[in-house]
Structures are given as C-alpha cells and as structure tokens.
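re: that chain from earlier
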Amino acid sequence: MPRFIGLDIHKTVVAGCVVDPHGTVCTRLRFPLTRTTLAAWARQLTAEDAVAVEATTNTWAVIALLQETPARLVVSNPLRTRAIATAKIKTDRVDAEVLAQLLRCDYLPPVWIPDAATLAARRLTTRRSRLVAERTRLKNRLHSVLHQLLLPCPVADLFSRAGLAWLTTVELPAAERAAVDADGRLLAAVEQELTALEQSQVVDAAADPRVRLLLTLPGIDVAVATALLAAIGEISRFPTPARLAAYLGLVPSVRQSAQHCYTGHITKQGASHVRWLLVQAAQHLDRHPGPLGAFVRKLQRRKNRNIAIVAAARKLVTLAWHVLRSGEPYRYAVPRATQEKLARLRRRATGQRRQSGPPPGTPRAAAYGTGQRTRGIPALATVYQQEGLPAPGPMPSAESRVLATDPAVHQFVTSLQVSHHRPRARQPALHTAKTDTHGAQPG
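^ sequence. v structure.
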C-alpha cells in the first residue's frame, strides 16, 4: 500500500507523519537529524512511498541521502506551502501532517531538485556574493574613519596602490590607527580569498560552452554568467523567457480583482544576488549601439533611469533564454568587445594567448603609409569562428523590418557582417619639463 510521508526538517531534529491513501494517519515519528539516524530510517522506504520536505538550509543534504532510496521525493516551496496551509496552531506535528496530506492530494507546489554540479555552482556563487559584500563593508569602514577625522584622500581611489600606500603612512590617532590597520589586514585577506574563488570559477567556466554563449551578450562577464547558470540549472525547465524572468523576480507584481488591476514593483523573488548582478550588468546598456541599447534609450525618454535599467536586466534574461535554448550566440554583439571578453576568459583559465596580427596574405590597410593609425574590426561571424562558437542564424524578416526603422541601428547591424578599419583616436602628446633640485623649471 502506498504511503505519503511528510517530514518537517529542523537543524537537529526531524518530525514526520505517515498517512495512507485515504488520509488516515498511520504513524508519527520524531528522531535526531544525523546522517546515521536518517540513513537508518530511510532503509524502510519502498518504491510505493512518497516523501515531502520543505526547502530549507539543510534540505539538499537530506535529499541527497534520500535519493539513494527508491521512494519518490518532492521538495516544496515553503512560501507557497505557507499560503496554502495556514493554520492558527502551528507545531511540528501539524506541519508534518499538512505536508503529508498535501502530498497525498497532489496539491503540493514542488521545487526543482538540482543535481550535484548545480548545487556546487550555487554554493560558489553565493560565497562570492558574500565575499564581495564583506569587502564593501570593510571599504566603507575605512572611508568612515577618514570622514570622521576630516581627512580627504589625496588620490581618486583610496584602494589603489597609491591610495593604500598613503593610508599606511598618514598620521592617525592611536585608536583609529589600530582600527585602520586591522581592517586593512581583513581587506587583504578577503581580496585574496575572492581572487582564489574567482580563479576556480574561471577554470570551470572555460570548460562550459554555455558560459561562452552568455559572454556574447553585452554587459555579461564571467561572474554574471556563472551566477545566472547556477540559478537556472537546466534551461529546459523554463518553457518561456517570461517564466525565467519571473523565477528571478524581474517581473512586475500584479494585484487584480474584477475590473481593477494594479501593476506594482518587481516581485524580487528568487536569488537576490543573481538579480543584483543582472541589474549591474545592465547599467551601461544605454551605450550599446545595437537594438538593445536603442531599447534602453527609448525607455529612458519615457521613464526614469532606474525603471529602464531594471527593464534592461529583464531583457538580458530574455536574451539569455533564447541563447541557451537555441545554442546560438547573440546576433548583435559588438565584435571587438566580445572578442576581448572571450580572449580574457581563455587567458585567465589557461594562460594561452592567441597570436595577434593579420594572417599571412592579408592586404595592407587603405591608410597604410598615411600616418593615420587604424584599428581592425573583424566581422562578428569571424570572431565566433575563431572562438569556436557557431555562427548566428539568419535574421527573421520581421526582425529586419523593425531594425530598418532606426537608421543608426540598421547601420550598426550592417557593419557586423564585414570586417573594416576605423581610425584610432589620436592621443595628446604629454610634455613634461625637467625641474632642478629647487623645483623651478629651467629657463
């Protein structure tokens, strides 16, 4: 006879309830949460059993152990479960029985169970976000000490090499000097840990073809790509890009009743650090010469900048969904910037540098011998071919008609199909006069 088991998991104890197909409570259980006790209880599970747990801190460790059994496992979203099964009397016995009854009625909102690789990637991205937050707190504390003492920093960046050298030599009171030295040591340790963590992420990202596909999107670098892939897991579980945007909390909240409908701020559900990275990646998309930049600039003329940037972050998620589902890179990427991002990933992961310069037999540029310095801009398909990425598919006719309405965007899209040269900006000459030992300039 099939059994439906609800487990209310805590840090040190597990409360359970077993019901039959008719909803009758068969057994209640309670035991300490250790690997030994959980494994001993799991040995009695059969293929007819179904086990439900809520997603919490140690859920995935419990699920990893229960996956060795033939039982069917269901992980519930606690936010949605709480909305379904609200009760004025809330105990471990009640929670376990509610989980079991909802599982029996097939009315339990499930959560996708990630594999071991996705869980490991999520732990790394979460740890990186916490290290970045800790680094920001330490920098703010150092700035606060200087502000309290009315000491302006003589360099633009306090945490550059020159700024840190000045910070170690500036005269401070004894208490403030001790605090600055302590926070400086902590900042150096956090920077070291962050560098090591990012290097391990880069090595893993270089072996994942999905990362290189995401790097073709403007604004997305390795940190954003790895965090987004860790949150997504399998892209096939999102049938539409709107589902993925809702999963990351980038869709507006809606309150509708009868003829009244109110659309508010974004829901902010899902992984907050991934959503923050996407918003940061969208900060400079208004400078992009392609259709994505035109979308942001058009929206900024009607809305304030914050709304436009969040909308651009959602647009990035939509493009990421299409890129991952189709396996094709972004069709409107800037060739030089994309080439530099992909080359940076290769150098950081393997240390290999591709030989630069034109291949043998390439004719000289038209500006050769004129004194005008030019920069070669390869065609986008050439960049993708050199980096081992597939060429973008043909442009749909409806998309080409939309792009034709904006002459600047249409010109940019046309330039992506052929390689060309553009003049480099002439650098102004820097004239430095020698000074004598007294600091006066010689006549």
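The longest helix spans residues 116-148.
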